[in-house]
Amino acid sequence: MSFTLAIVGRPNVGKSTLFNRLVGKRLALVDDQPGVTRDLREGAARLADLRFTVIDTAGLEEVTDDSLQGRMRRLTERAVDMADICLFMVDARVGITPSDLVFADILRKRAAHVILAANKAEGSAADAGVLEAYSLGLGEPVRLSAEHGEGLNELYTQLMPLADAYAERAAEDAPDTDVTLDEDDGDMEAEIPMPTAKKPLQVAVVGRPNAGKSTLINQILGEDRLLTGPEAGITRDAISLRTEWAGADGVAVPMRIFDTAGMRKKAKVQEKLEKLSVGDGLRAVKFAEVVVVLLDAAIPFEQQDLRIADLAEREGRAVVVAVNKWDIEENKQAKLKDLRESFERLLPQLRGAPLVTVSARTGRGLDRLHAAIMRAYTVWNTRVTTAQLNRWLSGMLEAHPPPAPQGKRIKLRYMTQAKTRPPGFVVMCSHPDKVPDSYNRYLVNGLRLDFDMPGTPIRLWMRGQNDANPYKGRKKAAPSKLRKHTDGRRRD
Questions:
Q1: Which stretches of 325-423 are assigned E, i.e. beta strand?
Q2: Could you count the other beta carbons within 10 Å of the beta carbon of residue 421?
Q3: Which one, of 207, 241, 248, lies nearest residue 226 by Cα?
Q4: pLDDT tens-digit profile of 122-136?
């Protein structure tokens, strides 16, 4: 998905009808009664060769209080801020209303790109409304009929140049993950790509509300760029900030740091605004190379912390666990020992990942955090040669051969590294579907220990390899038609 398109406008102008047509399904409720849509609804849209995310919004109304309509309006304004392109829909049969003028002025100030669409424009009865739409000052309106599918070619023409620009931006911003290795240099050591100003190291700071994420980033930046306070849930957007962060060695590393909203348990997330904020945080994890899971020293490793760390591991990102508010901890040595034991027990899939203690308020421990991030990034890029892997595999097989389920012996013949970021390995074997998960874990833990890859996600795939049997697949020869008599003679 190269960009996000938010459909906005007054109630009952046909936003949900167009949303359903773009996603190709009746996902949104449609009715002649205005105000049916209340929540934001996202969908994967398709228009010719364009693939993008479309957001259906509640109808804009001139209400700013805390009533239901006021909350719906704030939610729609949030979608406007979040979207790359806004499609402002008006009703060509009704014409331009005073509300349309107000909302057009809001969009001019808040949205980077606005496309004006005059909906219900089929037939000559809509001509006057289409001409009147020019008065909004948002350029030439696209003449649409969402119900009948008319005018989509014009919409495509408007979106195409913007889509190209956003596709280039997405390609530049997206980190290189699951990098496939070239078989030709399978026995060569690969250099780890170092962050540059053009391709900075992407770091996401995630955690529960009030863990101190924004305060920590302000300390890293050396200025109060982010709003902080004792209240939980101040941050609502996933905000990215560029900086050059120098560690204890004095070497400044270009980074893009994502500050995310606090993530609570799904059952507790009721407000639609908070749901959007958590979604923003999840997207930040997908755009990161290193994820810093920030814990509160007073209540570490709650269920939600474990889910967040597990999410980062499943996404294949390098993980650093940082324990904040360490300055107010009294019995530091005993607490640190308990933390390490809990970490090993509760997150075995991240065994060996860096665990550092910091104080976002005072700035203590930032050098340790910087070193842990760079160490995790280095391990995430680890490359092991094929020769080393196969020598290692022989030793692992001698120490603990694979089981023989149902009497079928499993032969592990060959191993190579197929990917980096995170490291991914392929083992060619017989009966790959019979290899138990416990033996996969045995190999993964051995890789971590013997090749110094603590904490990083490791992918291991078992693949089948046909035995070199020249007769395999051949048909049996037909029996001879000659019959042998008792006297040894043959006859037809």
A1: 355-357, 412-420
A2: 22
A3: 241
A4: 888 889 999 999 999
Span 182-194, average pLDDT: 63
pLDDT at 201 over 70: yes
Of the candidate ranges 24-28, 53-57, 297-301, 487-491, the one whose mean pLDDT is the lowest: 487-491
| 37 contacts 15 by C-beta, under 8 angstroms | yes
The residues facing 180 across adjacent strands are 419
User: CA-CA distance, 279 to 303, in Å (whole number)?
Assistant: 19
**d(Cα 51, Cα 236) in Å, to the nearest integer?**
27
Q: What gap in Å lies between CA 226 and CA 213, rounded to an integer?
A: 10
Q: For residue 33, what are its two tokens?
A: 């009664």
Cβ atoms of 120 and 143 within 8 Å: the answer is no
Specify the DSSP class assigned to residue 150.
B
Q: Which residues of 10-49 are buried (b: 16+ CB within 10 A; e: fewer)?
A: bbbbbbbbbbbbbbeeeebeeeeeeeebbebbbbebebee
**What's the pTM?**
0.64
Residues β-bridged to residue 172: none
Name which of 4-8, 72-76, 226-230 the model is least confident about: 226-230
- Share the mean pLDDT of the chain: 81
